[in-house]
Amino acid sequence: MKSRALLRRGFTDMDLDGSASTLCVVDEVKYINDPIHGYINLSNYTLDFIDTPQFQRLRNIKQMGSSYHVFPGASHNRFEHSIGTSFLANGFVQGLALRQPELEIDERDIRCVTLAGLCHDLGHGPFSHMFDNAFIPHACPGIEWSHEQGSELMLDHTIDENNIDIAEDDISLIKKLIQGTTQPVGGEKMFLFDIVANKRNGVDTDKFDYIQRDCYNVGIKSSYDFSRLMLNSRVIDDEVCYSYKEAYNLTEMFHTRYSLHKRIYSHRAAKAIELMIVDALLAADPVLQISQAISDPNRYQQLTDDVVRDIERSKEPELKEARNLIARIHKRDIYKFVDEFILPPELASVADRSVINEAEIVGHRSTNDGFVEKDVLVEFSCIHYGMGKENPVDHIKFYSKYSIDEKFPIASEFISMCVPEKYEERIVRIFTRTASKRGQIQRAARRLMEKLNATNENCLSSSSPPNITPNRGLTLPGDPSLADIKRRRLEFI
């Protein structure tokens, strides 16, 4: 019996049994064994990109950034996530082509969607989203830059440097698929834009892969099933729609996304370490010119998480501050979490960085507190289900088994009566670079919030205006308010 494995690697019949009866050679096919998706078949056109220094760079960029310092299992990288997203994108579009031949999905459509999934994260910088969301805004104020822009830059660089044979209109389509759009793109099938980076409702293979992969690596059980979503999808009026049976599955997917942001991505210790890494990179930027690499693909190609090692190994006195910060991380002498306030939605437009910031907190310190603005770090974050204040499931179209060519929305109350009333929360977090000042900073921050609450009561017409309320569970020892609580408890007894 002839070995299929050997045929896949390109052996002829003569190689297998000594006979020269055939000269047919089967094209080489490569596989990788992925912990999430099992065996993944890598086609030649994906290998053209994977086997390049630009794509291999993703092996050295942690998928979850600083979270690895808190969750030891979060050691996976953008490399495997990109291959997983490509695998799912390919399966998604091929499934549509099989179930709906009338869509006339051709080889080019499949190839471009697959490559968009593969290359969508080529532009991530060190520690993933930390680079474009935290470091670049501080290092290059006024410059709007995203990792998607970096992916376009690195896609062109990969093609040019490795002489990859690909048509210009294919490159253009791949870039648009990476960016995502809801606007018509001349001559292209709009449902293709719902597969890798879905701007209509956020249901895409990027999310399918990273939610499952991140849950697996940090040890969280994921309760939604992306394979069912892919099998129960079809295109209606140039839009990917899902079976009405998948409405709760989709709701659970977005809840899992929220839960990951709430419990893992925004973990206090991980955020404290992220702030330290940002400070280290900012301190090193005048010497290493890290931020300037975003406009130079040759330099950006060399920019990975290893920049931290470059700083550690350096002997330059100008990098001493950055080296000290990294050394503190290794010793677990990290910035300290001080306090957290969840802002009522009614105050989101009032309680912003213009009124809650480091200088304002310093302005509310007591006479002998002795901390200064550099001791304080104020971080605003917004956690939601993927579409800000809106429920993303409201933007998904469904079909029923009785009318598979008619699409319709499903209101939340027909999915579950236990869905959230709100889909977004804005959080203010306060950290300190100086652990000994933690209590003083918390008391000053709470005095600032009391002042804002008083202002709100005067400005808002409601009889019970919303307040920014401190969490008693976060109250540090020595806070006068804690003493008041204990005193009231004793009086009650």
Explain how this protein is built:
The protein has a four-stranded mixed sheet. A three-stranded antiparallel sheet has the order 5-9-6. The chain is of the alpha+beta class and 493 residues long. Mean pLDDT is 90; it is low at 1-26 and 481-493. The protein has helices at residues 4-8, 13-17, 44-50, 53-56, 78-99, 107-119, 129-139, 147-162, 168-179, 205-218, 226-231, 247-265, 268-288, 297-300, 307-313, 320-330, 358-363, 438-459, 480-492, and strands spanning 30-34, 38-42, 233-236, 239-243, 336-343, 376-384, 398-400, 403-408, 424-432. Among the domains are: 60-268, Hypothetical protein af1432; 335-385 and 420-493, no CATH class.
Shape: globular
Instruction: Name the CATH superfamily classification of one domain.
Output: Hypothetical protein af1432
Strand order, sheet with most strands? 3-4-7-8
What is the helix/strand order?
HHEEHHHHHHHHHEEHHHHHEHEEEEHH
**Major sheet:** 4 strands, mixed
Q: Indicate the structural class.
A: alpha+beta
As a percent range, the share of helical residues equals 40-55%
Mean pLDDT: 90
